[in-house]
């Protein structure tokens, strides 16, 4: 990219753009923040931990005063497991709302934890709706909690958490949210949407590097979580209590990752917070989808459910289209894309998040066009069967 200066310069020489939903492309200053060592017990690092918790809490918006922030070492899945194991009592029962890999993973986690659960599986395309959640809850009084995936990153679908929250609390149950790939770009204000806890991680919409996740939970739930957890290292109550008492993480924190994350949080605030971050990702998605449609590609989801986080495209029907080749040709042009994670049809995904803007997305489209030409693919149109299936399911 040699065009006009942009606030989103290309990554360092030889480094590709990551169009993947975390790890993702980070700002140079975020990477630079990692170039020193920190003593984890030292007051300087404890101040960094306090700052991180306060800034994340503030991102919740109205109603945040009833919540607290508990960082958890590991990737996002560790934080999901920590949340489920800490807030669902051992005799609790969870309704898992799944429409992709992350919903399935929540159910699998509960299986490992030995927590009773039922699965509402909507396949790859469809959102769980409030009315069906209300019906399941009415029919099964043993269910105590619902877990919803905010943005299901396997398809990019943005699930209707507001109506899910209404259905959950309308029948007196509690909502937990995996907001991993949405928090920081899509608002989830406790004053507008009720829930007990959410999880996200360092390497998604805040644009940090991987190494920890965090739980934002109602203080009353944090207090009630004492003794629930199956795990020493994933006990959210214990981490919270120790952090409040000593200012330290219980076990070795990813110090450099925390330093990078604080810089990422400063950039997030400077950009204009959650609204501005979401607007940039939305513009990224719009530039991407419009350009790819011009090339003949079709999105898995209709416009109403397309998140500004990641977009799934059907693979073209043309037998000359081979995904591995397409991937390599895109990489040769400086773009790392993402294979599909759908169960039924061939697809690939392009992430809209990371330290990049719509100009980068237009370059992605140009590269995709060039890759199709190089493969000799005449039309990017998907197989008729994929479109029929989508129409049949009313996606
Ligand atoms: C990224 C992500 C996770 C966590 O995945 P890790 O690979 O453990 O970081 C969980 N849920 C959703 C919706 C995600 O996007």
Q: What's this entry about, in short?
A:
This protein is of the alpha/beta class and 395 residues long. The chain is 41% helix and 15% strand.
Give the arrangement of secondary structure elements.
Blueprint: E1 17-18, H1 28-32, H2 43-59, E2 67-73, H3 76-87, E3 93-98, H4 101-113, E4 116-121, H5 130-139, E5 145-149, E6 151-152, E7 157-158, H6 161-170, E8 174-178, E9 197-201, E10 212-218, H7 219-224, H8 236-246, H9 255-271, H10 273-294, E11 310-314, H11 323-332, E12 335-336, E13 338-339, E14 347-351, H12 358-375, H13 384-393
Parallel strand pairs: 1-12, 3-4, 3-5, 5-8, 8-9
Antiparallel strand pairs: 2-10, 6-7, 9-10, 11-14, 13-14
The structure holds pyridoxal-5'-phosphate (PLP).
Bound small molecules, deduplicated: pyridoxal-5'-phosphate
Derived from helix and strand composition plus strand pairing, the structural class reads alpha/beta
Uncertain regions: pLDDT < 50 for 5+ in a row? Answer: none
Radius of gyration: 21 Å
Number of domains: 2
- The strand order across the widest sheet is 2-10-9-8-5-3-4
CATH architecture of the largest domain: 3-Layer(aba) Sandwich
Question: Kindly, what is the distance between the CA atoms of the first and last residues, rounded to a whole number of angstroms?
Answer: 37 Å
pLDDT average, as an integer? 95
CATH homologous superfamily designation of the largest domain: Type I PLP-dependent aspartate aminotransferase-like (Major domain)
The total of beta strands comes to 14
> Strand fraction band?
15-25%
Helix content: 40-55%
In CATH, the topology of the largest domain is named: Aspartate Aminotransferase, domain 2
- Report the major sheet: 7 strands, mixed
CATH C-level class of the largest domain: Alpha Beta
H/E order of the elements? Answer: EHHEHEHEHEEEHEEEHHHHEHEEEHH
* Individual helix count: 13
Shape: globular
């Amino acid at each position: 990219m040699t065009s006009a200066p942009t606030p989103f310069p290309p990554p360092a020489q030889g480094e590709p753009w990551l169009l993947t939903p975390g790890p993702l492309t980070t700002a140079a200053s975020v990477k630079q923040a990692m170039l020193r060592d920190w003593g984890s017990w030292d007051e300087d690092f404890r101040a960094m931990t306090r700052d991180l918790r306060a800034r994340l809490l503030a991102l919740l918006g109205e109603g945040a005063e009833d919540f607290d922030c508990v960082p958890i070492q590991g990737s996002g899945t560790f934080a999901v497991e920590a949340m489920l194991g800490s807030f669902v009592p051992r005799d609790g029962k969870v309704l898992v709302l799944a429409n992709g890999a992350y919903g399935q993973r929540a159910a699998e986690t509960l299986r490992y934890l030995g927590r009773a659960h039922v699965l509402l599986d909507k396949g790859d395309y469809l959102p769980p709706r409030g009315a069906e959640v209300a019906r399941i809850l009415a029919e099964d009084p043993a269910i105590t909690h619902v877990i919803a995936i905010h943005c299901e990153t396997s398809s990019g679908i943005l699930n209707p958490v507001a109506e899910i929250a209404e259905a959950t609390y309308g029948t007196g149950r509690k909502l937990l949210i995996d907001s991993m790939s949405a928090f920081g770009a899509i608002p989830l204000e406790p004053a507008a949407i009720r829930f007990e806890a959410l999880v996200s991680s360092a390497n998604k919409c805040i644009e940090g590097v991987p190494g920890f996740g965090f739980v934002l939970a109602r203080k009353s739930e944090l207090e009630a979580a004492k003794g629930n957890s199956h795990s020493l290292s994933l006990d959210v109550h214990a981490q919270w209590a120790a952090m409040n008492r000593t200012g330290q993480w219980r076990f070795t924190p990813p110090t450099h990752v925390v330093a990078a994350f604080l810089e990422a949080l400063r950039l997030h605030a400077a950009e204009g917070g959650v609204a501005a971050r979401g607007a940039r990702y939305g513009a990224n998605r719009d530039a991407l989808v419009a350009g790819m449609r011009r090339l003949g590609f079709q999105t898995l989801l209709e416009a109403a459910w397309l998140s500004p986080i990641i977009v799934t495209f059907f693979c073209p029907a043309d037998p000359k289209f081979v995904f591995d080749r397409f991937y390599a040709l895109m990489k040769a042009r400086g773009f790392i894309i993402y294979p599909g994670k759908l169960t039924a049809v061939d697809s690939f995904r392009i992430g809209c998040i990371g330290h990049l803007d719509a100009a980068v997305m237009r370059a992605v489209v140009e590269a995709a066009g060039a890759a199709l030409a190089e493969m000799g693919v005449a039309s990017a149109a998907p197989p008729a069967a994929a479109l029929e299936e989508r129409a049949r399911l009313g996606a």
